[in-house]
Amino acid sequence: MTAQVDYLVVVFTATSGASGELLGSDEKELVQLVWQLVNVNNKTLGKVNELLIRPDLTDSTEEKTDEDVVVECKEDDESSSGADCVYTATSLDSGINTFNLQLTNEVNSAGAGTSLCLCADGQLHIRQVIHPEAAGKNILVPDCFYSFFDLRKEFMNHFPNSDLKALNAHVMAESLSLPVDVPTVWDPAANQDPLAALPAEVAVQQVRLMTSIILALLSEPYCHSFSNPEKVSERFESGTCSKMEKVCDNTVIRARGLPWQSSDQDIARFFKGLNIAKGGAALCLNAQGRRNGEALVRFVSEEHRDLALQRHKHHMGNRYIEVYKATGEDFLKIAGGTSNEVAMFLSREDQIIVRMRGLPFNATHDDVLRFFSPEDGSKETCAVSGEKEGILFVRYPDGRPTGDAFVLFACEEHAQCALRKHKELLGKRYIELFKSTAAEVQQVLNRYSSAPLIPVAPAPLVSVLPSVSLLPHPGGMRDCLRLRGLPYTASIEDILTFLGEFTQDVRQHGVHMVLNQQGRPSGDCFIQMTSAERALQASQRLHKHVMSSQRGANSRYVEVFPCSAEEMGLVLMGGSLSHTHAHTHTRSRSGTGLSPPPCKSRRLSPPTYSFAPVQPMLPTEAAAAGLYPPLGQVLLAPRPMHPGHAYYPASAQLYMNYTTYYPSPPGSPTTLGFFPAHSSMSSPGGLVRMPGLPYNGSGVKDLINAVQGYQYAPEDALIHAHGAVHAHDPARTLLTQPKEWVCI
Questions:
Q1: Which three-class secondary structure state does DSSP give residue 443?
Q2: Fewer CB atoms inside 10 A, N or C side of the chain?
């Protein structure tokens, strides 16, 4: 749009939550919409209209037609908010329809032109309030909401030295020397609570002030022309991205917590109102080639990226989505590609992509076409777009097939018909079908045709540990509990409440919540009990009971299994413990249900990726002679290594193939106030000498983080850096009062 419009519709919205610069950030519903028509040519104003959206909470299920909207026209007597006309709607859908109908009638009655455009004070009212709520409720908004003027940016054309982020209607009015009724006009820059809802009269006052600013800009000496409005993307455009393309770091975000079945269109719907760059929604895949619930999204500008960050923990269905900053390099790793074949395949626009997985290695283009051909007597058609040109087989660099392929379909109807063939047979193999995206095509091709997208681990830690089985003997003392399936909001207090009478049997500092790589709860917890008998009784009585969290409304049933300290140590170091092992004491070593930690399994490092051998920590002869402690002692109390010795070569970077778990700082009933402690230290204190500390360390905090949660032998009064590690610790007590014993 290059010519100046005939009418400007000044709009102001208010929600039931935050206002000002936080408007729309708390996902609250729209409750008030105020607008006023401005004739640009004649510089005249229309009536101030107010729309109140008040949900009908009655239980009546009768259809409502005329009662959906109640009109209260106040011409002689102004309403309490000061508006000329007040409308009340019971839903956003009926409210938007009322706004569009009344606005059209007012423009037609004026008779001085038909072109109009909305005008708002900033981006939030349109992009962060109207569009997100309408998209979440599957409501189609009128075309007028897809373009609008940002009054602040129009003001900046004449006052370029102003700070855009600090601008508001109050500041603009003062700069134009307009009279402002300070006691009544709301100033967003004032020290007001941004989370509090606005009074009803504020929206009307803001609209009147904005119309005064517009009339001042239209008049001498500014003679401003409203000709280039902001645009809101109506639909997401898929496309390709080259690895050589430059992507600005300030335009990319990472969304985490997406439903597994979500597509790039679902992501675009979540960020409705913000303009995503072409092909800017890339779903991430894990090491197995499956979606991991994360996506990288590229926006057209930094301004839209900043607005997207305000949607942190907004909901997509029943799941809340976390939004964080990311870099352009992160986006190119996921969505970037270099293959000309892929670029040609994805160059066809308005195509739906379906991924085929599990194809026979000898499958051809004709086999795929026959697979999607309609059966005899069937009216459903799912013709492949472009015949053979619409099929892309995924191959290894040497040309061998991987069993994956991507197929193009011309429309959504054909794609849905094709997806109904999920797990049908092609030859002797069943084929899995999934709706895919352009970014997923790039990721899969990058994974198979070049270096791995997720680097693999170098030489495993097994090579530097004694030659001993990683699986603990199943016959150890099972005086610990493993809780699985905890609510992610559960705290140690919730766990102790769940244990009930068994809380008295928890050892001092014996509660260990398991965290993942991001430091978030993994849903697992280990508890050290005073005896194996009480641990068995607790597991039998509490297994699959429901645990509630004080910090969240969700509640889940929790699985409770007895386990040994060695098994606990193995899981905390990154291994996995199957619940089948918890109830089986006579099972062979191969069937214990335990698996080595992922970073310690030699099979996870393909032979094509070789690393320099590392000298073992203990000689083989010393290991065979039994001069090393049991596995549980090694994992829970790591031996200090010789200064300068590294687990991995300096040139190799350590990666974990799968999730790695870490223990949280331990807790117990006495430290949390469940039961009073008898003394400040429940066991005799000990000293640890740590030579070779860096001079630039941050002091006590680093030392506490280094030893927090580790066990020690209470009979030792002094542990030297190169002293022997005792193999037996009957008490398994933990270090307490850390700030009491750190001495630098």
A1: helix
A2: C
Which structural domains are found in the chain, ordered by start?
A: 7-56+67-231 (3.30.420.10), 249-335 (3.30.70.330), 340-449 (3.30.70.330), 480-573 (3.30.70.330)
Any idea what DSSP says for residue 505? G
Q: How far is CA 125 from CA 99, 191, 274, 520, in A?
A: 15, 21, 12, 34
Q: Which of 529, 524, 512 is nearest to 558 (CA)?
A: 524
Q: Taking the mean position of all CA atoms in its chain, how far away is CA 739?
A: 36
Burial class (CB in 10 A: 0-12, 13-18, 19+), 266: middle
- Please count the residues of the chain: 744
**Count of C-beta atoms within a 10 Å radius of residue 78:** 13
d(CA 313, CA 296): 16
Q: Please give the Cα distance from 182 to 371 (Å, whole number).
A: 73
Phi, psi of 127 (to 5 degrees): -80, -35
Q: Distance between CA 132 and CA 62 in Å, rounded?
A: 29
pLDDT for the residue 717: 36
Q: How many Cβ atoms are within 10 Å of 684's Cβ, its own excluded?
A: 10
Decide if 571 contacts 662 (C-beta within 8 A).
no
CA dist 86 and 499 (Å) reads 57
Distances from the Cα of 53 to the Cα of 18, 70, 90, 141, angstroms: 17, 11, 6, 16
DSSP 529-584: ES-HHHHHHHHHHHTTEEEE-TT-S-EEEEEEEEE-HHHHHHHHTT-EE-GGGGG-
Residues 203-235: tens digit of each pLDDT: 999 999 999 999 999 998 999 999 899 999 998
* Cβ proximity of 285 and 443 under 8 Å: yes
* Token pair for 590: 């191969």
Q: Is the dihedral of CA 569, 574, 575, 579 positive or negative?
A: positive
Q: What is the pTM of this model?
A: 0.58
- How many C-beta neighbours within 10 Å does residue 10 have? 26
- Which residue matches tokens 């641990």? 535
Q: Work out the burial of residue 635: count CB atoms within 10 Å of its CB; fewer than 13 is exposed, 13-18 middle, 19 or more buried.
A: buried
Low-confidence ranges of the chain (pLDDT < 70): 1-2, 56-80, 112, 181-197, 338-339, 349-350, 376-377, 379, 449-475, 517-518, 551-553, 573-744
Residue 15 CA neighbour count, 13 Å, CB half? 24
CA distance linking residue 528 with residue 480, whole number of Å:
4
Report yes or no: 512 and 533 within 8 Å, Cβ to Cβ.
no
**Residue 39: what pLDDT?**
92
Residue with tokens 């393909």: 606
Contact 355, 433 (CB under 8 A): yes
Cα diameter, the chain: 102
- Alpha helix segments (H runs only) across 300-410: 302-309, 328-335, 340-346, 365-372
In 3D space, the residue among 461, 466, 442, 464 whose CA is nearest the CA of residue 453 turns out to be: 442
- The closest of 534, 549, 509, 529 to 667, measured between CA atoms, is 509
Query: Contact, 176 vs 216, CB < 8 A?
Result: yes
Find the radius of gyration of the CA atoms of the chain. Answer: 33
- 245/340 Cα distance (integer angstroms): 15
Pairing of strands 521-529, 506-515: antiparallel
DSSP string, 619-643: -HHHHHTT-S--HHHHHHSPPPPPT
**pLDDT tens sequence across 97-154:** 999 999 999 998 877 677 899 999 999 999 999 999 999 999 999 999 999 999 999 9
Q: Is the peptide bond before 613 cis (omega within 30 degrees of 0)?
A: no
The residues that bridge with 512 in the sheet, in sequence order, are 526
- Is-contact 582 471, C-beta < 8 A? no
